[in-house]
Automatic annotation (TrEMBL):
Keywords, in A-Z order: Calcium, Hydrolase, Metal-binding, Signal
Family per record: Belongs to the sulfatase family.
Name of the protein described by the UniProt record: Sulfatase N-terminal domain-containing protein
One Gene Ontology MF term: metal ion binding
Annotated Sulfatase N-terminal domain residues: 50-399
Cleavable signal peptide: 1-22
């Protein structure tokens, strides 16, 4: 089947680069010696470097994996894989909404540095800035062959496309699967209509919508490399197409070169659609069915890696927590309820998950499986982040870290490889940026200092039914002990809270100084309607004539 090449627009991207020395800058805000090494410490040759599979779920809560939360029974493959490796119970995404979280994962850098602090639309001219380096670019330079499947959400124009950011091959819906219409809509709130067949009725519309609403004037595209191969795509067959693409890539031999596969799955972001075999597979309805399909797809990729008979590291995590506004279609944050936010006497109600700095927004399910290297059957409560993926992969493969920039991630390879936990914590501080609820997007909304968490903003995110607490800055900031109080129900007071606020203030000051001295970028958030992925200019909804 022939595909249609994506339209490209040669607008100059707004990239701001501060001039610094060419030497790599690593963690200059490291007031507690949180320093990543410039070079990987591995002695692997190219021939025996590990294969790497990074699997990123979408809107999957900490409690949506049975290994974390016994109430969940829809993830047997994930649970078995987690049991065979190291489960990370205190790992956090780099932001609590789609594009900023993905940029943080890929680069090891917060949005304060990359400029990616909110989502890009379908007509975006920009994306992940050109001068930001992804782990795919890092590993390809080290000899890896690379591929990506699934949700990119970091731009499609030249310089921002997956093939321009380190990937040799790509198959996926390039942004969230609710950002376009389909012919067989899946479960969503509010329910979304099918792509119009009477296209004259949609010619006056544009892609604007209310948050969580429906796009009706742009069919959802499926892109292979730079070509649109379906528009609208069939969501019920998407997982099978991803599985075949992933298996083919994994099982392809290439003169002993290791591979990187980044699988950014659509599950469990709305609309929830699955293949027929999963439609009645769970008691939890469409959400449970989506978890079952996610679990099956992960299992297929893991089995293909085992069949390849080569050392493969598999790292599983999610981009953020559940989207509570979607009611029964949203997942579970487990015990991370954000109870203070939900109470009338506290935050005044609303969500404490996706888009917020509460634990349910950014603490995600995660594990690392690497047979014969990562001892299995372990659970680590060490503070970790998706930001740590890039520097850890550099250490395990011997790849050179990106030059002339600071990283916010840490090399946690010692935590993965050794059965005994390190004598000292690998990190004591973690920053949680505002992600669209309260406060300026990208600015730091909460700081973890050990088990204590200092929260600067509350409110602004809707729960089921639309209720939300008022967005506000907290003066003074609240302090919670998330080890003893995972629900964030009881703010601390006295000297403990005062000491935590002081440590967080010192960390924030050091971070700000580091950002000012760093190579930073500014993302281009301009949009232009003709820049949308469109396989037919004769169709008001960009419908492919062959579909």
């Amino acid at each position: 089947m022939a595909g249609i090449r994506l339209w490209t627009w040669n607008f100059v991207c707004c990239v701001l680069v501060k001039t610094v020395s060419s030497q790599t800058i690593v963690n200059q805000y490291d007031w507690e010696s949180e320093v990543s090494s410039k070079k990987g410490r591995s002695t692997y040759s190219l021939k025996n470097r590990p294969n790497i599979i990074i699997i990123l779920a979408d809107d999957m809560g900490w409690g949506d994996m049975g290994a974390n939360w016994a109430e969940t029974t829809d993830t047997p493959n994930l649970d078995a894989l987690a049991k065979g490796g190291l489960r990370l119970s205190d790992l956090h995404s780099g932001a609590s909404v789609c594009a900023p979280s993905r940029a943080a994962l890929l680069t090891g850098r917060l949005g304060l540095r990359t400029g990616v602090v909110r989502n890009f639309g379908a007509a975006a001219l920009g994306g992940l800035p050109r001068n930001e380096t992804t782990f795919a670019e890092m590993l390809r330079a080290a000899g890896y062959r690379t591929a990506m499947l699934g949700k990119w959400h970091l731009g499609l124009q030249p310089g921002h496309h997956p093939l321009d950011k380190g990937f040799d091959k790509y198959l996926g819906v390039p942004y969230s699967i609710d950002m376009g219409c389909t012919d067989s809509p899946a479960a969503n709130l509010p329910p979304c209509p099918t792509c119009p067949l009477d296209e004259s009725a949609t010619s006056h519309r544009n892609a604007s919508r209310v948050e969580g609403g429906c796009f009706e004037d742009l069919a959802l595209p499926l892109i292979k490399d730079r070509d649109i191969i379906h528009q609208p795509t069939n969501l019920s067959t998407l997982a099978e197409q991803y599985a075949r693409f992933g298996e083919d890539f994994i099982l392809t031999t290439s003169e002993g070169r290791p591979f990187l596969l980044y699988a950014a799955l659509a599950h469990v972001h709305v609309p929830l659609a699955t293949g027929a075999r999963f439609a009645e597979a769970s008691r939890r309805g469409p959400l449970g069915a989506a978890l079952r399909e996610l679990d099956w797809l992960t299992g297929r990729l893991a089995k293909a890696a085992d069949a390849a008979r080569r050392d493969t590291l598999l790292w599983f995590l999610s981009d953020n927590g559940p989207w509570e506004a979607k009611c029964t279609l949203a997942g579970s944050a487990g015990p991370y309820l954000g109870s203070w936010q939900r109470s009338a006497a506290g935050g005044g109600g609303g969500s404490a998950s996706k888009r917020t700095v509460w634990e349910g927004g950014h603490r995600t399910p995660s594990f690392v499986r690497w047979p014969s290297h990562v001892p299995g059957g372990r659970v680590s409560g060490a503070l970790a982040s998706a930001l740590d993926v890039l520097p850890t992969l550099a250490a395990l493969t011997g790849a050179a870290l990106p030059a002339a920039r600071s990283l916010d991630g840490r090399d946690i390879s010692a935590l993965l490889l050794h059965p005994d936990p390190p004598a000292a914590p690998l990190r004591q501080v973690l920053f949680h940026p505002n992600s669209g609820a309260a406060g300026e997007q990208g600015q730091i909304g909460a700081v973890r200092v050990g088990d204590l968490k200092v929260v600067y903003f509350s409110g602004g995110a809707a729960t089921c039914g639309g209720a939300q607490g008022p967005p506000r800055a907290l003066r003074p900031p609240l302090v919670f002990d998330v080890g003893a109080d995972p629900a964030e129900a009881r703010p601390l007071g006295g000297q403990v809270a005062a000491a935590a606020r002081e440590k967080a203030a010192r960390a924030l000051d050091a971070l700000q100084r580091s950002v000012r001295a760093d190579n930073t970028s500014r993302a281009d958030y301009r949009s232009h309607r003709p820049a949308r992925p469109c396989c037919s200019s004769y169709s008001a909804v960009c419908r492919c004539l062959w579909d």
